Amino acid sequence: MTEYRPKLGDTVEYMRTKRFGKIMGFEGPYVQLRPVGGGREWDADPGDLRLLMLMEALSAGVAAANKRSKGERL
After folding, report:
1. N or C: more exposed end of the chain, with fewer CB within 10 A?
2. In total, how many domains does the chain have?
3. Average of per-residue pLDDT values in the chain
4. Sequential DSSP letters for 49-62
5. Cα 28 to chain center, whole Å?
6. How far apart are CA 24 and CA 14, in angstroms?
7. What angle do CA 29, 32, 34 make, to 5 degrees?
8. In this model, does residue 1 exceed pLDDT 60?
9. Would you say 67 and 36 are in contact if contact means Cβ atoms under 8 Å apart?
10. pLDDT, tens digit, for every residue of 7-33?
């Protein structure tokens, strides 16, 4: 299996917290992630990221949109 190399714009799962995010940038040894539904960015260790398959990324986006439409916290 090939090692995943993070790229700007990728939608990933941060395995430590099971959160989904979009790669927004790189700061030192960390990758900066923003929640799929928007919100505050956080730093993540690139070794703890898993690239989402298209279906997973779409599902994460739909889940975030549903929460937002119900007024729930993302």
Report:
1. N
2. 1
3. 91
4. EEEPPHHHHHHHHH
5. 18
6. 14
7. 165
8. no
9. no
10. 999 999 999 999 999 999 999 999 999
13: helix, strand or coil: strand
Residue 36 corresponds to which tokens in the numbers above? Answer: 């799929």
Residue 74 domain-assigned? no
Cβ atoms of residues 20 and 13 within 8 Å: yes
**What is the domain range of residue 47?**
11-66
d(CA 73, CA 68): 7
CB 33 within 8 A of CB 23: yes
Is residue 35 in some structural domain? yes
Among residues 27, 26, 23, the alpha carbon closest in space to that of 9 is found at: 23
Report yes or no: 7 and 37 within 8 Å, Cβ to Cβ.
Answer: no
Residue 55, in any domain of the structure: yes
Considering the domain boundaries, does residue 5 fall inside one?
no
In the block, which residue shows the tokens 């703890």?
48
